[in-house]
Specification:
The structure is a homohexamer of 333-residue chains. Chain A contains 13 helices and 7 strands. Helix content of chain A is 44%, strand content 17%. In chain A, β4 and β5 form a beta hairpin. Chain A is an alpha+beta fold. In chain A, the strands form 2 sheets. Chain A has a 5-stranded mixed beta barrel with strand order 1-2-3-5-4. In chain A, α3 packs parallel to α6 and α7 crosses α11. At the A-B interface, α6, α11, α12 and α13 of A face α6, α11, α12 and α13 of B.
C-alpha cells in the first residue's frame, strides 16, 4: 500500500513506492560516499539518504525512475529525511499514476466521450473530416487525454487539457445561440482544437515543465503546425475556412501581450477568446482558493500572477440570514 | 407623414416634422437678418435657413424643440439646404419618438417583462426585496426603459440599456451552473443593476451625450448611489451582502484602466465582468459591422476605439462549399 | 513599567504587558500539550511558550487580548523565546495604547482642534452645515482621530489620517490664493473629507490591515457613501454642489491606474490631487528615511513601492562649506 | 493705428502693420505673376495677394518681416483675403511687439524685480554667487524675460517662462516650511533655474517653435549646460552641492516618460517636481478654458494632450444658492 | 509615351496609360448617366469623368484594369479632373510595371543573384537542402522578387522584400563573427526566410494592401507554414534544428507587442532581431526623409508611426567647416 | 601564492591575501570581544572571525583594506568560517588586482591601442582634436581603462567599459557603409564617447556600486558634462556639430523609459542606439549563460532583468547530424 509523503512522521518505518526527482552523490566527513535523493509523490517531496551498500544501489536506478523504498524517517535540521536501507527500480506498469501526479477529478474517459459526442454534431463536412483525423490519431489522443492545460495557472493536473477543452466546448454550446450569425461548426472545431499545442508544450510524464519546443515556439504555434498537418491530408479543405480556423487558434489569447500574434477579428474569434479566458480564470481561481485560503480566513493569500487577493464569501452565512429574515418578517410588516 | 432627411433631394418640397438641433441667427450680405438651423431626425441632419418673416418665427421655437416645417430643398456648395417658409413648434405628444432617435429593434415592453420574470426567480429575500423597490419606482423604470447603454460603443440606441441588461441576465442564467459554488441570486441581482447608473450618465431625450453627473461621476458611482439609496430603505439588509453586491457593481469593468476602482475579487465578480464585457463587445462589433462594412468588402473600416479592423466571413460561401463537397464526395472515395 | 520587546536579552526575567498576536497549541516530543504565542508591542514581536499549567491558562485569554506576562527569555535556534510561567488577560483600559502601536508624534486633540477651527472659516452655508453633521457624529470622530492614513505608504500610524488631513487642509490654505478663481470653501471641504473612507478601509484596533469592506470597496467608495449619507440629511443641499464635491473625492488619486474612477476635471480637483499626492509622498519618504537609511550611509535601502532609492544630503556639510567660503572670501577678492 | 486681423470684414479698406508669415509666388490663369502672402498679428492670420506692381514689391520684403500694408478685404471661397496695393518693410523698432505676439498679462519688469528680490533671500554663499552670475549676464536676462514656457501647453506667451518661474518660486516659499528638513536655498535656486534651458529650446522672435537645439537636446540638457557653464566660474562651488542642484533640474519632470533622465531622489526634488507640475497644469488648464469653452457651455472642448474635457463650475450659481439658503434659513429652523 | 499624373496641368490634352483604381456611375442634374473614375500611376491619382458614349464604354473596362485614355484636364473645385473622350482596356503586357508602381531602385535580378550566392555558402546540409527547395519553387520566387516588405513603414515598393532580405543577410555576414559561438548557417537561413510570409501578407499586383490571410494570420505565421511545408519534404531534417529555425522566425519582432508570439531566447535570435529592426528603421527613415522633408528645412514632418520628427544634418556644412578650419589652422597655432 | 576562497575546504589551514569587505565587532556569550569580518577575492566571499589578540588587530586594518591572513577553516551552521590567528594590512602595490576583481579577458592595453588606432582614422579636424584632448587626459584614461560598463547587466568587470567601447566602434566600422549618407567621423566619435560618463557613474576600486553622482545624475549626463568640458577648450568647434554629437550621446538608450531624455532623431543616432543595445545584450547574455546554465541543461536560469530564460543550443549535436546526413546521403539519392 502507498504511504504518502505528507503522512510520514519522525521515526516511522517506511516501505512504499516513490518517484526519484533528484539523485546525486556526496562524501561524508569520514570520507565515505553516500547517495542524496529527492523522492516525491502526489502529496509532496522528502529528502532521502543511502549511507550503506552505496556501490550496490548506485547504478541500479536513476533520476525519474519509480522506486520501491525501505527506510526510516529521521529529523535533520528541522526537516524529515528518509534513511534508506533498500531501494529497487520498478516499472511504470507497477505503479498507479494518480499516486504520483495531480489528476483531474472528473473521469478522463467519460470526458473524452462527451467531447466526441459533441464533435459529432458538427455538420460542415470539412470540419467534421478534420476532427475525424484527430480522433483517429491514437498517439495524439493519448497525449490529449493526459496533458495538463498549464503548469501553474489553471487546470494544472493530468487530464486538465481535456477538462478545459470540454468545458470550453460546453460554454460555446450554451452561448452561441445568444448572438445572431455565429458559425457554430467553426466555433466548436476551434474550441476543441484551441489548445491543441499543449500536448507538446509541456512535458508531464515525470513532472510538469515546459519542453524545449514549448518554450521556443509556444502552444499556439505548435497547435497551428499540428492543425496544418491534418488539413494537408484533406485536399478539398477550403482555403478561407482554413484561414478562419487558424485565425481563431492564433487570436484566442486576445492580446499581443498575452502571446497572440493576432487579435480576434471575427465575432467567433471574439467569443472564443472571452469564453476561453473566463474558463481559465474561473478554474485557476477555484484551484487557488482550494489551497490558498488559510483556515478561518475568507481571503486567499496573494496571487502573484494576478497581482491580487481573492475573497470567498461565506455562503452559509447568507443562507442563515435568509432564514433569519423569514423569522423577522412578521416584525417587519 | 414623416419625410426622412436622407430621402430629401434637390428641389423637393418638404413638409414634415423635425427636431431643432442648432439655432442661430446671421446677417445676409444685403444686411437682413436670417435664421440658421440644423434640423435632424433618425436618418440624419440637414441645414435649414429662414430668410423671411424672421421676426415672426425667431422666438416661436427653440433649440431641442420638435417643429413642423414647410420648405424647399436647394443645393448650396455641394450640400442640401432647406429654405423654410413656415415653421411651428409641436409638442412631444405629437411626434413618434422612434422617428427621431435610433431605437432598439426588440420590443421594449417585452424585454422589460422578461427581465421582471427572471428577477422573480431570486430566492434570497433581501435581494428580492431590493429589486422590488426598483420595480416599484416608476420614474426609475421610465428612464431604465429609455436609456441607451452607451453613447458610441454598444447598444447605442434608446432601449439599449434594457436590451444589454436583459442580455447579460440571460447569459448569467446560461453560464452560472457551469461552475460550482456560484451564488445565482447575487449574480442575477448584480447583472440587473450593473449599469444602473447609466440612466443618469447620459442625456438622451434630445440627443445622446454625457450629462454633467455622467462626466464628473460616471455610471459606476451613480449606480452605487442609487443602489445605496434603495438598500437604506431595507433596514435588515445584511451588511456583507450589501458589500458583495456593491463590489460586483464597482468591479464589473474588470480593470482600473477601464474605470473600475476595484478589480473583481470573487468568482461572481469575475464571471460578471467577462459576460458583461463579451456582451458589450459582441453587440458593439455587430452594430459597427452593420454600418461600416463597405459594399463588396468583407472588411469593416478601421474601428478607432478598438484600434483594429473586423472581418465578416462570407457564410453563404462556406455553405456552398458544403454543397460542393457533398457532390464531390463520391469522387473523393 | 513596560519592558519593550526590542530591549529583551537572553536570560532576562520579564514582567510586562504585551498583545497576543497569535495563539496556538502544540505537543512536545514527550507528548505534553503546550501553548505557542506570538507577543507584540510597539517595538517588535517575540515568540512565547507556556509549558506548564497549560490547562489553567489555555482558555483564560485569546488572540488580540492584552496580557500581563511573567517569564524568562531563552535563545532557541538563534531567536529569543519567552518561557512564560504566568499570564493574565488585562482590559484595554489598563494599557497605554501608544505602548503597543505606532502613534502620530503630534497631539491628536490639538490637531483635531486645528482642523475644527479651519472648518469654521467655510462660509458656504451648505458646506458648513455638511461638515457640522460630521463634527456632531461622535462615533465618526472617534474613528477619524484614531485611523492611520495607510497600511504602509504614508502616515502609517494611529492618528495618521487626521495628521494627513490637517496637513492637506493647511496646504490648501497656503496655495489656494495663488491661482485665480478657485472656490476655497469647496476645496477645504473636499480636503477635510477626501480620505474619509479610510476610517473603515483599514482595521487598526489590534493591527493594521484592510477590512473586508476596505478591500472589496476601497476608501474612495466608502467615503462617497458616508458623504452621501450626510448630504441626505440636508434637503436643501444643491445637487450640482454635491456633484462637484463628490467629483473631488472620486478623482483625488488623479489617475485610473491609481484607483480613481474619474480624473480631475475642475481646477479645484486638479489642485487637490497634486497637494494630496505631494503630502503623501513627502510623509512617506520621511517615514521611510527615518528607518531605512543605514548608519553611515546617505542612501536609503530600496523602496519597493516607489521602485527607487532615496538620498539624504548631509546638510551640515553644506553649512560647514558655507563657513569655509566665508573665510576664503578675502582670498578670493 | 493697428487694425487687428480678427476685426477685418469684407470690403474693408485696411492700412496697418502685419508680420509676413509666409510668402510665395503664383501664376494667374492669364499668365501673370502674383504674390501669395500669409499675414499675421496677435489676433490671427489672413491671406494676402499682390496682383499689381509685383516686380516692384517682390524683393522689397521677405518672410518674417514686419510690413506696412495698404489693401482691401474681399471674400474668396468663404474666406477673407486682402488684395494689397502697397506694401513696405518696417523695422522692429517701429512696431509694438505685443501687437504681434501673445504676451504675459503681468508686467515683465515687475515680475523680474520680484524674482530678484526673492533670490536675494538666499543665504548660502555659493548659491547666491551662482545666481548673481546669471543676473549679471545681460544677454541671458534678455532671453529669460522674453521666452515662453512652452509652445502649447502652458504659459505659451512671451514672458511665460518668467511668469512660470516666479510662480514656482512663490509656491516654494509658501510650501517649504510645511515640511521639516528641506533646504530652502537649494529649492529656491533650483526653482529659479529649473526651466533655464527654455531660453534656447524654443525660437520665439517671429513665431513659437522648437529650435534645432531644443528638439535635439531639450531644455533640461540645455539648462544643465548653461548651469555648468556658470558653476565653472566659481572654483569654490562644492561638488556635492553642484550634484544636488543638477539632480533637481534633471529630475523635475518626475518620470522617465516625461523626459527626465532621473526621478526625484531627495525631498527637495520631490517637492520641486510636484509644485512645478501643478503650476504648469493649473496655468495650462486656465489658458485652455479661456479659449476653449464654447459660449453657454460649462464644458471645454476636448484637450488632446490631456485626453479629457474640463468643467467650469458656475460659481455665481453657488453664490446665489448661498443667498437663497440664507433666506430659507428661518424656515429651516 | 507616358504622361505622368503629377505633370498634368489645367487644359492639357492628355493621351496616356493609367490604372483604374475606382469606377462608379452617377447621374447629372439633367438626368444623364456618367462614369466616375479614379485613375492612378506611379506619380499620383486623378479624378476622371466620362460624360459621353457612356453606354459604349461602361462595360469595356473595370476596376484594376490598365487603360489607354484620351481626354482634357479641367479644374473643378480647385482639383484637376480629366474629362475623358475615349478609353480602352490594355493588357498587362503592354504596360511598363515601373510606370505604375514604386519599384526598388536596385536591380531585382542582380539582388536575387547576390542572395543565391550567399545562400550557397551555407555548409549545413539540412539548411542548404531546405533553401534549395525554395530556390526550386518558381511560383515562390516570382512572388519573392516582386513583394514589398511593408505597406507603409519600410521597403514599401516592389522588390522591397528582396532588397530588405538581402540587406539583412549582408548585415549578418558583417556582424556574425564579431561574437563568439554564433551559428552562421542558422543565422543566414533564418535571415533569408525571416519575412518569407510577406509574399502572401500583402497584395501588391494592383495596389499595396493586406490580403485576407495577411490580416487574419500575419506574415510570421504564414512564413512558418511555408517553412513547415518545405521541411516536411526533408524527412531527415533534425527536429531541434527545425525548432531553432522556427524560433528565429517567430521571435524576430523581438517583443509580444510587436507581434512576435515569442521573444528571442538564443544568441542568434537576439542578433537577428536587432539587425532586422535596425535595417527596417534605417530604410524606413530614409524613405520618409526623401519625401517628407520640406524644402529649406532640415526637419521632416511628423512621423505618426514613430511619433517623432527626424533631423537631416547639413553634411556639406560640416565639410565646409572642415575646409575653414584647415585655413584657420595657421592662425590657431 | 593566492588561495582562492572557493577552493577552501573545512579544516584547511589558510595563508593568503584577501580584501576586507565588512568589519564589525561582537561579544561572545562569555563576554569577550571578537571581530567579525567578511573577506573576499575574485572567487567569492567567506566569513572571518578573530577570537584572540583582538585589541592588537582591531585598529591595524579596516574595511576595504587588503590583508594577509593566517587561519583555519571550520564549519559553522553549514557555512565555512575562517578562524583567524594573524592578520596584517598590505598595500595595493603588493597585490594582483585581477586576484580580487573580475577582469576583462582581453588585454586592456591592447584594446586601448586598437581604439586609439581607430580614432586616428577620423578626418574631421574638430572631432579629431576633441578626441585628442581625451587621449591627452591621463587621469581620464586611467579611469577609462579600469571602469566596468555596468554593475550587473553586461561587461560587468574591470576593463568592461573599454571592451564595450571598442566592440561598439568595431561594429560601427562594419555597418556604417551598409547605408548611404552616414557620417562616419561623427559615428566613430560618438561611439568612443557614448558611455564616457560611466567612469564616474560607478565606483569600482573596491567593489562595484553606483557613486552618488552616478545615482543622482547618471552616466548620460555625466558624460555630457565631460564632453562639454573638452569642447570648451576648442573655440572653433562648430555649434551644430557639437549639438549633433551631444544628441547621439543623449539618445543612445533609444527610449525615455530606458533613461534617454531624447529619442534618436538622426540616422547616425538610430544606428548607434541599435548597435550599442545589441552589443550590451549579446555580452550580457553571454556572461549570464556562462554562469547560469546548470550542468546538463540547455536552459539558463531565469534572468530577472530580461524577464526570461535563455537557450543554449547544442552545437556539437548539429554538427554530428551533419556527419550523419553525409553518410545518409547516398541513401537519399
Amino acid at each position: 500500500m502507498k504511504t504518502f509523503i505528507n503522512e510520514i512522521k519522525e521515526n516511522d518505518h517506511v516501505e512504499s513506492l516513490f518517484l526519484v526527482k533528484e539523485k546525486s552523490s556526496g562524501i561524508t566527513k569520514t570520507g565515505n560516499a553516500y547517495l542524496k535523493l529527492k523522492l516525491m509523490d502526489r502529496s509532496g517531496e522528502i529528502e532521502g539518504r543511502i549511507w550503506t551498500s552505496v556501490e550496490t544501489f548506485a547504478d541500479s536506478f536513476g533520476k525519474d525512475d519509480f522506486v520501491q523504498v525501505l527506510g526510516k524517517a529521521s529529523s535533520f535540521q528541522e526537516h524529515l529525511q528518509l534513511n534508506i536501507t533498500h531501494i529497487q527500480r520498478v516499472g511504470e506498469e507497477e505503479i498507479l499514476f494518480s499516486d504520483f501526479f495531480p489528476m483531474a477529478e472528473k473521469d478522463i474517459e467519460e470526458m473524452f466521450r462527451s467531447l466526441l459526442e459533441i464533435s459529432q454534431q458538427i455538420k460542415n463536412p470539412h470540419l467534421s473530416q478534420l476532427l475525424q483525423l484527430f480522433w483517429e490519431d491514437e498517439s495524439f489522443i493519448k497525449l490529449f487525454k493526459m496533458a495538463p492545460a498549464s503548469k501553474w495557472l489553471h487546470h494544472n493536473y493530468l487530464g486538465g487539457l481535456l477538462e478545459h477543452t470540454l468545458s470550453l466546448v460546453q460554454l460555446v454550446l450554451k452561448n452561441v445561440s445568444h448572438y445572431h450569425g455565429l458559425n457554430l461548426d467553426l466555433l466548436l472545431t476551434a474550441s476543441i482544437l484551441h489548445d491543441l499545442g499543449k500536448v507538446d508544450e509541456l512535458s508531464y510524464h515525470r513532472s510538469f515543465d515546459y519542453s524545449d519546443e514549448g518554450r521556443l515556439l509556444g502552444h499556439i504555434i505548435i497547435g497551428i503546425e499540428r492543425l496544418v498537418d491534418k488539413i494537408r491530408q484533406l485536399p478539398d479543405f477550403p482555403k478561407n475556412l482554413s484561414t478562419l480556423l487558424k485565425h481563431l487558434l492564433l487570436s484566442h489569447h486576445g492580446q499581443y501581450i498575452w502571446g497572440s500574434p493576432k487579435r480576434p477579428m471575427t465575432l467567433e474569434a471574439v467569443m472564443l477568446h472571452y469564453l476561453d479566458d473566463m474558463d481559465a480564470k474561473m478554474n485557476g481561481i477555484q484551484q487557488f482558493i482550494k489551497k490558498q485560503v488559510p483556515e478561518g480566513s475568507r481571503w486567499s493569500t496573494y496571487h502573484r500572477m494576478f497581482d491580487q487577493y481573492f475573497y470567498v464569501p461565506a455562503l452559509w452565512e447568507q443562507m442563515e440570514l435568509s432564514d433569519k429574515i423569514e423569522k423577522n418578517k412578521p416584525e417587519e410588516e
